[in-house]
Amino acid sequence: MKITVIGLGQMGGNMALTLQRAGFDVTGSDVFEAARRRLAEQGLATVSPDQIGASDVYLLSLPTSDHVREVIEQSPGLLGLAPKGSVIVDTSTSDPVVSRELAAKVADAGLEWLDAPVSGGPKGAATGRLGMLLGGDMATLERVMPVLEAMSAKRTHVGGPGSGHVVKLANNYLCAANLIATAEAVTLAAKAGVDPAACLSGLNSGSGRSAISEVNFPEWILSGRFDSGFTSGLMRKDLRLARDAASGLGLDLSLLQQVVAGWHADPDRPADSDDFNHITSPILAQADVDFSPSADSDEEASA
């Protein structure tokens, strides 16, 4: 099976290398020469966008729906150059309205569509341990299942075209809300004299636990690393998409509106280029507590 990966950033580049290691015939493409060169130095065949040729699968890993639309529609777009029967798999976090529109055009052109937004970050992409939310026809999903299995540890089919992107927006909304809520809970406990790590242990033993308290806080926040590979700008974009989706459906989701406002309250704290976990920093700063791991905890961890 021949695969062309379009978009060779941290996610797309790692997915391309993972698929190549799994034995697929993979070519990568990106508008930026530096990205193509970086992947070529790691052994991946790369081409510029105007050199993209025939493939069985076109895997898109792009920042926004506008970029996805451009790759599919703008000459020489995939609608014109992809062979009949080939599959376009959009792993981006895209606007589901746009995805459904593009899926219909893809089908009219004799191609197949699957939206497959991912979670797990660059590490998951590099190790083939991503989570995938799949929207599209079951027959299409089954056709590309070997590709999906090579990339991911968990795959959930949630409905027809666009459904994967709907659920991804819902997921990222909860993630964004939980980051703020957990930071406030930990700040409350720390200000009252409870060690943050002890607070998290307590939360994780009860009903307040989440992936944020179990993974993000120890892995990226309390460690001070803030290197998850997902930026605040991308989370803000996803929250706006979730807000717009709700508005388009005539829904009044007041908490969603507050979370969107909270993430956009100060464009510099965090900056769009900062790791998205930095949204917790201004909140935690109110506790006047050193959140860095203590020497004792480091010794216990190494033991």
Automatic annotation (TrEMBL):
Keyword Ubl conjugation on entry: no
Residue span(s) of domain 3-hydroxyisobutyrate dehydrogenase-like NAD-binding: 162-265
Lineage, opening ranks: Bacteria, Pseudomonadati, Pseudomonadota, Gammaproteobacteria, Oceanospirillales
Name of the protein in its database record: 3-hydroxyisobutyrate dehydrogenase
Keywords from the UniProt entry: NAD, Oxidoreductase
Organism, scientific name: Salinicola socius
InterPro entries linked to this entry: 6-PGluconate_DH-like_C_sf, 6PGD_dom2, 6PGDH_NADP-bd, HIBADH-like_NADP-bd, HIBADH-related, NAD(P)-bd_dom_sf
Residue ranges occupied by any 6-phosphogluconate dehydrogenase NADP-binding domain in the UniProt entry: 2-159
Region feature (Disordered): 284-303
GO molecular function: NAD binding; NADP binding; oxidoreductase activity, acting on the CH-OH group of donors, NAD or NADP as acceptor
Active site annotation, chain numbering: 168
Superkingdom of the organism of origin: Bacteria
